[in-house]
Amino acid sequence: MKVEIWSDVTCPWCGLGNHRVARAIERFEHADEVDLVHHSFPLGGSFPEGRTFSVREALLRQHGIGGDRAEASTRRIEKLAESEGLTPYRVLDNEVGNTDLAHEFLAHASAQGCNREAWDLIFGTYFGRAEPVFSLEDLLGLSDELGLDREQTRQALTDRRYRRQVRDDAARAQRLGATGAPFIVVDGRYGVPGAQDSDSLLELLRTAWDDSHPLTLATAGGDAPVCGPDGCAVPERA
User: Fold this and answer.
1) Mean per-residue pLDDT, 75-98
2) What domains does the chain contain, in order, with CATH numbers?
3) In the predicted model, what is the mean pLDDT of residues 97-115?
4) Nearest alpha carbon to residue 166 among 50, 35, 38, 18
5) What is the DSSP letter of 28?
6) Rounded distance, CA 45 to CA 134, Å?
7) Angstrom distance (rounded) from CA 53 to CA 199
8) How far apart, in whole angstroms, are the C-alpha atoms of residue 42 and residue 148?
9) Which residues, at least 6 apart from 73, have a Cβ–Cβ distance to it below 8 Å?
């Protein structure tokens, strides 16, 4: 069964959503038969390349949210993450920037067979260590951590080889009904917007599994005695 999740790199709900999906799959009875695939849904393309901004400044510029409101909204996400074992998880005291190159790096890493590992690493680097993931040098450092060829990665990012693929990835999510990130699709049939809790995701996994693996009742030699709502049938004596 395939589970797909579209995310942005610096979206705090995406990092939390990734964690929740992973936990739901771990608890799923058929976890070894689930293929989790990450896709790009860039949200940071409006930021100029080569510059970063504090989260506080970005919230004020983009959404008019500042002061106590910014503190409350971001600290809430941090506390939710902590309560679910995702710690440290730094949101407010972080920086944001243009994420286009980061998504192209993720596409390159995925092409090298490191889809899930690359996404886990970039979320852990950004939210766990509060380290930047925007510049070529930032991403080459992640390439080293994944064991990818550094010069091949540099060439792919310099050539912007995966730019079109990233755009197509986001366009596919929008065709499926996504208006933001995270966006999850289970078994190609169930679309789930937002960072749903792991219990709800687990139930969805079970529903999708049951739908695609219907039970067929078989009789091994005619009817056999059963108990029902009105009691148990007593076989008549021969």
Assistant:
1) 94
2) 2-212 (3.40.30.10)
3) 97
4) 38
5) S
6) 11
7) 35
8) 23
9) 59, 65
Residues 6+ apart with CB under 8 A from 83: none
CA quadruple 4, 23, 56, 71: dihedral, nearest 10: 140
Phi-psi region of 180 (alpha: psi -120 to 50; beta: other; left: phi over 0): beta
List the beta strands (DSSP E) in the chain.
2-7, 35-40, 52-54, 95-97, 183-186, 190-193, 227-228, 231-232
Q: What is the largest CA-CA distance in the chain?
A: 89
> Which residue from 23, 77, 14, 76 is spatially nearest to 199, judged by alpha carbons?
23
Q: Is the pLDDT score of 177 beyond 60? A: yes
Residue with tokens 């766990």: 128
Band of residue 200 on the pLDDT scale cut at 50, 70, 90 = very high
pTM: 0.89
**Alpha-carbon gap, residue 132 to 81, rounded angstroms:** 20
Token couple for 211: 């739908």
Annotate 93-120 with DSSP letters as a single string. TSEEE--HHHHHHHHHHHHTT-HHHHHH
Q: What is the pLDDT of residues 116-174, one digit of tens each?
A: 999 999 999 999 999 999 999 999 999 999 999 999 999 999 999 999 999 999 999 99
